[in-house]
Hints:
- By secondary structure, the chain is mostly helical.
- The chain has a single domain (about 5-185, about 205-395), classed as MFS general substrate transporter like domains (Growth Hormone, Chain: A, Up-down Bundle), CATH 1.20.1250.20.
- The protein has 18 helices and no strands.
- Helix 1 crosses helix 8 (about 130-175), helix 7 runs antiparallel to helix 16 (about 330-350) and helix 12 (about 210-240) packs antiparallel against helix 13 (about 245-275).
- The longest helix is centred in the middle third of the chain and has 45 residues, at about 130-175.
- The two termini are about 40 Å apart.
Amino acid sequence: MLSNREWRVLALLVASGFINYIDRSNLSLGATNIQREFHLDSQQLGLLLGAFFWTYALSQFLGFAGWLVDRFHVSWILAGGFFLWSGAMGATGLTRSFVMLFATRLVLGLGESVAYPCYSRILVTHFPENHRGLTNAWIDAGTKSGPALGTLVGALAMARFGWRGLFVGLGFGSLMWLIPWLLWMPRGTAYSTPVDQSQVPSVFRIFRHRSAIFSALGLFCSNYFWYFLVTWLPHYLETERHFSKSKMGVFASLAYLSVAVSSVASGWLSDRWISRGGTPTRVRKTFTGLGLTLSTIILPVALVRDEGVAMGLLMLACLCYGMFASNVWAVTQTLAGPHAAGKWTAVQNGVGNFSGVVGPAVTGWLVQRTGLYSLSFAVAAAVALTGAAVFVFGIGPLKPIQWEQEVSV
């Protein structure tokens, strides 16, 4: 049972993930408006939608985010990153050129790059294996609820105040999160003491393990599917399904919310299974592999003409994806342990989020060339199925690696 203080910290982490994903996903909500204002074609829009991921992925892949989390007070690092990404979100609404718009997205990615390494270091230190499914699922639910509520409320607000008003209000308004965080943020030695670098494996040592390589590749595949939904689903619903802005907001929101609800339920179920004797290997691989495999139900969404059937299949695919999302970081945290959690998470998330650069650009290119979304849905389904195979067959047994026996500095 978690203490009141632990629940309070977890609630703030969930809230930060919620705001994190509102900020990174709202550009897709205003995509059609921005496309018209800046006179962009679909391929250019795809590049803009992927701009965030350049700095977000590179900062983690090159080790900068992990280095910050391992060497400095993790609570202050999260606070600094939050301030940077929220300020960039607000500044986006003040831009007057494509170059400035692109630049604010790069700054947003830099600020958000520390979030998941911070989450992993905090969770792996203070939550046992049989609680990590649910705690990770709550944070994941926050990240998935961000696009859900942001899309629903944002679509309505955008219709009244325009896309600029939405960005300025959400960006600068969300800075209020810093007040409770600075009051209640973790201050114990486990959070504030720099990780003993003599016990931290190098990136090269981490990636000598096959599980590290395949966890990164698997995250790339799974993120491709998720970022396809985050960046292009609103545009698809408006342009190909001809939904109004408010109707698009409702259905896109329901899709993202489906992932969040499924993630929490699956996290709870996976922890219960482990508490009753299931091995982490069997439990985590079942949820990740089955979730991604069933997510391919999204394939016929672009092919079915009946609106009700298409939206039903979309929600079902998102529910299945939530099964995967609840357990992916529990896999990493079990393997890495406290000493390597920050660095492993950062590099894995860096590799995985290059899909945010590739996916939107590939989708934009396909839509520009074909004028349809059907091939884009097929690619997303195929990549998700590849990810399922990677998690089930590529990653080895889920047991903590004994770094003290093999670390070389």
